Each structure stands twice: as structure tokens, then as C-alpha cells.
Amino acid sequence: MTQPVHVFIATTAGLVKIRGITHRNAESLASFVTVSSGSRVSAITTQYRHLADKSISPLAAYFEHNSYHMVLESEIDQGESWQLGTAIAHMLYAHGKYTREASSEVNPTDAVIIATGAIEFSRGDIKLVTHLGQKCLNAQQQIAKWQAQHCDVNFVIPEENYRQPLPDIPFELFPVGNIDDVEQWLYKKAWIKDCVASTTAHSTAANATSEHLATNLALTNSSARQKSAGLRRLGTNNGAGLLSRLRSAVDFSAHKERGSAVSERATNLLALGKHLPGTRSKFVLLSATVLLVFTVFLFAFNALEQTRKTPQVSLHYDIKTLGQCRSAPDKSAQSERTEASLNMVQTPNPIVRFEPLTLDALCALNIAFIDVGTPPSQLWLVADSYALLSLNEVDAAYFNTHFADAIAVDKDASSVWSIPLPTYRQRSRQYIILAFEEALDESSQQSLQAYLSDLHSQQRPPSLENLSLWASKQSMGVRFITHELGV
Hints:
The protein has helices at about 45-50, 85-95, 100-105, 130-150, 180-190, 195-220, 225-235, 235-250, 255-275, 280-310, 330-340, 395-400, 440-455, 465-470, and strands at about 5-10, 15-25, 30-35, 65-70, 110-115, 120, 125, 150-160, 175, 310-320, 345, 350-355, 355-360, 360-370, 380-385, 390, 390-395, 415-420, 430-435, 480-485. By secondary structure, the chain is of the alpha/beta class.
């Protein structure tokens, strides 16, 4: 008797078991996902249909039936990291492996597969996931129970996440880079009989794309009757369909990238208009001309907007007067000090470097993000002593007193944070600030703290290079600010 295998999806809310997979052969039926034993359709159903579609799936060889029904133990309402676990379950199902195990409980000595990872459809690569540390911590207690029952526990993750610093976890992680790796791993574990998915699936997807392009080229060179039929499909109801496509291409909130797409769409319409007869041709050409004019306006508006608001990151600091720090400066002194203490970098890059300041002369230090669109959600300071400090955001009153006479600030796109000054001032001090677009969860904070502890034990400095290495494994938006306080 072969070893039963159970498949779980690792999420930030905990482990979710795939409770069942069944196939359906009726051509009119679509694939779908339900939750538990109820009839509620899962939020991931639409994406699951794409994964189960043989014409585009990166593992088409394992979806030989027309449609499938997958049952989840609990809901997964967002993200794509469920795809790796789902792919593994379907590989097992195609080999007759994942039938009874799906609905049964995990028993001693059973095999357990836990997976998290998204799949890139065109090449079958397993993409980087976020919050891996949190997923590992959430699964740790249950994994410990399975290990005590001598279960074969396998936690499968994307290869890009493998070198990511993580909290201390008492289990091994298995990295996979693409669908080929997954299939080879299952084969070596003797859970599938042979490897048929990857090459066949990629070839199928490439052939489908080639056939689609060939069909489009054939339509371009077809007879006038076929062109007219194509036009009717494009612009039925007196051009309503065409106008719908035009509206979908124009997003008034977008800038350069969308402007390029609109320009390309307009060029395509101009080319199409040359092949269409009569008034419809004139309509298409006129629409394309209007769209091109709008594109020029869009680029001009974007350039004006960028000129009007230049993103800035700046340091603002209070200095001693006659050797003393003023606790309550008057308004005139406040304005004068603001002008004198502006240390600014315009149009900030991912790495911002400020000129050194004299530590002994400082009374207070703040960092401001001005007109940056979406201000950072959280700032962490890493000191040269390996200390990790969470910075506090200054309230809105700071803008009124420090910026009113100096800078025109969009408060919704700006924020100011207080930087604590070091107590020991007998030597120069360095610090690096990590400005995160999203606040770190608990596991990510533990990961960063553990990484700093490792650097300290290895006598490696908390440098920009080392911190960048940690951040590159987290798959989250971060900006670095480096600064030195001299003596």
C-alpha cells in the first residue's frame, strides 16, 4: 500500500487543506472552487479556471478533462500563492494519488505537502511570494504535531525565497524554481509515475500562441467580406463596441505608461482604418486622430504635473543656540531655522544619501517625505550598534509650524518622522533608515531582528549592502536613507 499524501496551502491566516478534486467531462461546464462541504464558491474560482484551462495552463498535460471542481477546507480570498499547492494536488490527482487522501485526516506516518508559490504561466516559473516568515510561523505548531507522529512533512517554497532570512523554524524548506522542478521532485518521492507535464505544457502554450497569431495575420490578408465581418464584430451598434475599446484604453488618472499604450492603440486604429471601406473607415480614422491628439495632451499634462510637484526627501533639524537647545522657539526663529537647516534631496532614488551633520550641535532631527505620492507606511532605523528602532510619525501640527513659510506641501502625499539622537556622542555615528511602503508584520520584524543578530555574531557591519541583501528577499517596496552624524 502506498503512503497517503495530503496537500495544504500555506497562507498568512494558516494552513488550508485541499479537500477534494473531481473532474467533469461536459463541455458546457466550467471549473470552479468551493469552500468546505458547502456550496459557497471561492473567490479564487476565476483564477483557478485559468490554471485548469488546457489552452493556457503551464501544466496542461495534467488537465486532460474539460473542467474540474476543487474543494478547499477554508476560504482563500486573495493572492496567487495558492497556485503551487493546487498544481501539486492536480499532479497527484492525475496519477490517481489524491483521491481518498483529500477528504481524510492526516494519520501517523502519512506524507504532508505544504506549499506556497505563484506560477508564471508563459514559462512555468514559480514566482517569489510575500510574508513567507508569517506563513512559516503560522504553520509551525501544526508541523510540530505531525513531526511527533512521524509524518513526512515537506514545505515547498519558491527558489527565490529560499535564501530569505526567516525566524527560527524547526523544519526544512524545499525550494523549486519551476514546474519541471516540482514534477521531478514528486517523481523522486515516488508520488507520481512519470514526468509529462512541463515540456508538453510549455509546447502546448507556445503552439496555441502561434496559432492565435497566425489567425490574426490571416484575417489581415483576407477578403473584403472577411474584413467587413471583422469590423462588425469590432464596432456593432454604430460603433459602440469600438468606443468601448477606446474608453478602456484611456485612463485619466494614468501618466506615461498608459499614454504609451493609448498611442499604440491609436496607431493600430490608423492601420486598421486603411483596410476598411466607406464611412466605417472614416469613423475609425477620425477616432484614431482624436485619440492621438488626446495622447499628446496627456504627455503634456504629465510633464506639467511633474514640474509642479517635485518629490523630495529632506532632513530638518534644530540646532543649539549659545550652547543650549530651545524648548519653545518663537515663530520668527522657527522660520529662520527651517530655512537654514534644510538638507534636501530632490526626486529621491531608492537609496538616499544626506550630507553629514555635527552631532554635538543637534537638538532634534526629523526626516520629511514631501509630495512623494504615497508616503511610507513605516520607518525602521538600523543603528551602527545593530539596534533596530521603529520611528514615530510627527503629527500634522509639525507641518503648520515648520513648513508653512518654507514649502508648499500636499499633506496627503507627505509625512514627517522623528529620528532619535544617540546618547553616546563621543564618536561619529552612522545609521540607515528603511522606509517601507507597507508596514512590516510581526514575522518580518523578527526576520530583520534575527538578521541583525546574525550580522553581529559574524562581526559584519549593518551596512547598506548587507541590509539590501535582506530586503531583496522580502519582495516588498523599501527605500534606504543613509546618514552620518559627525563629532
